[in-house]
Amino acid sequence: LTEFRIAFERTIPLSVFAICGSCSALGSWNPQAAVVLQTDDCELWKATIELPRGVPVKYRYFKGYFLEPKVYTDVLLWVWMSKLRVS
């Protein structure tokens, strides 16, 4: 398991931060299938994800907004928050 942690300040109510990447565990670059990060304090966002072993994984964080917040589908991607990363 890999823990992803990043500090972001939520500036718009109901906005979310998510991670999307090159493997199926990270949504295969589809923001609709991205992993939504969780927070307790609206500053440190994190998720623990099982990644494939022995395969380089590329990923990026993004800030978005769910059109239906209780359903967690149909995310409106606002902005990519980081450069492409490889783990």
UniProtKB/TrEMBL annotation:
Which InterPro entries has this protein been placed in?
Carb-bd-like_fold (IPR013784), CBM20 (IPR002044), Ig-like_fold (IPR013783)
> Locate the CBM20 domain: which residues?
1-87
A molecular function (GO) term: starch binding
One Pfam family, short name please?
A: CBM_20
Q: Which SUPFAM superfamilies match?
A: Starch-binding domain-like (SSF49452)
Q: What is this protein called?
A: CBM20 domain-containing protein
Q: What organism, scientifically named, is this protein from?
A: Pavo cristatus (Indian peafowl)
